[in-house]
Amino acid sequence: MLSIRKAAPHDAPQIAAIILPTIREGATYALDPGMSEAEALAYWMAPDKETFVAEQDVAVLGTYYLRANQAGGGRHVCNCGYMTKTGATGQGIARRMCEHSLAYARARGYRAMQFNFVVSTNERALRLWQSLGFEVVGRLPGAFMHPCAGAVDALVMYRQL
Fold this sequence. Notes:
The chain has 161 residues and is of the alpha+beta class. It has one domain: Aminopeptidase (3-Layer(aba) Sandwich). Helix content is 29%, strand content 38%. It has helices at residues 12-25, 37-44, 93-107, 123-131; strands spanning 2-6, 50-56, 59-68, 77-84, 112-119, 135-146, 150-160. The chain has a seven-stranded mixed sheet with strand order 1-2-3-4-5-7-6.
């Protein structure tokens, strides 16, 4: 049974094993594919984020973070990033993490969730986010340099809580 909990420092190696392949691929996150493991973990587990892991038995199969999208007057809108372990995609893990993040965000007093930069070629994620009630509210033409497709659009997605 898949469970989701806040990440602990001892989870860092398993989180790194999930996020580094995705970062290295360079197809879905606007992060430097050459960043070190320490830099990747510092980004994913930064003090301004609450980081979670999705685990089955003792294996971490996914991770996500939640943070305020903006400061001050925009602090009531949160932002998340999600990654699933290579080989564990298509098992509903990302859906469960997003559902968990929506409930957690509501409980923390957020009024909406915004994804700032969804790469338009990430069709699986787009279908998932839309099935969970997110709408495309903005398009940034050619804003992402995809390693195979070249310049592709990035989408801003939003959902009220």
